[in-house]
């Protein structure tokens, strides 16, 4: 029985790859229900990432949703879905619930060039390949504003805001939200190695002090980085880190 289960999962992986979706991320461009446009929650887009291993990663603006997927016969079928556990405001929570129901409904899909259409009943979700819809922002010279602090499986939003980074070649500047910072950084492949980070000497307490400690602990030695459109993720070897978004 265990072997049969493994075969089924492997089949899903090959299916996604053969569909032309594997290795691609698609971002929503339009959504209609029963012919009428439906607005998304403010400052959000639906994203669907089809991985080469046959899994799907989806996001409706808050938590990450993931699981095995099959695209056999023009139908998108998902298995058991896992999800991060970050608290969402009401509009994003409703949108997340809606996306979960859509994925579980075994919707039809159609790919035409770089455009993906997902259809279920009267719902039509139109998406476009992220590389066309939203190319990667340059790592250097961009002001990266801190959005989330990652501690293992938990993501939290910094309460006071104001923390950011800007990388320029071998230098990093920015703010911990309390003090300005600067230092050296080296880049090798998908790794950034931070040297000693210097800061101004303003006294920080409460949330600002805790956030400063977290930021400086992350910018200490080698971290892996992922650049995806206007998002930058930094992760320590322990799996903790910081998520940023390009300003403006």
What does this structure look like?
The chain is an alpha+beta fold. The strands form two sheets. Strands 1, 2, 3, 4, 5, 6, 7, 8, 9 and 10 form a ten-stranded antiparallel β-sheet that branches. An eight-stranded antiparallel β-barrel has the order 11-13-14-15-16-17-18-19. The protein has two domains: 123 residues, Lipocalin; 104 residues, Beta Barrel (Lipocalin). β8 and β9 form a beta hairpin. It is elongated, with a radius of gyration of 20 Å.
Secondary-structure element pattern, one letter each: HEEEEEEEHEEEHEEEEEEHEEE
What is the CATH first-level class name of the largest domain?
A: Mainly Beta
Q: From the alpha-carbon coordinates, what is the Rg to the nearest angstrom?
A: 20 Å
What are the low-pLDDT stretches, counting only 5+ consecutive residues below 50? 1-14
Helix content: 10-25%
CATH fold name of the largest domain: Lipocalin
Question: Mind telling me which CATH architecture of the largest domain this is?
Answer: Beta Barrel
Straight-line N-to-C gap: 53 Å
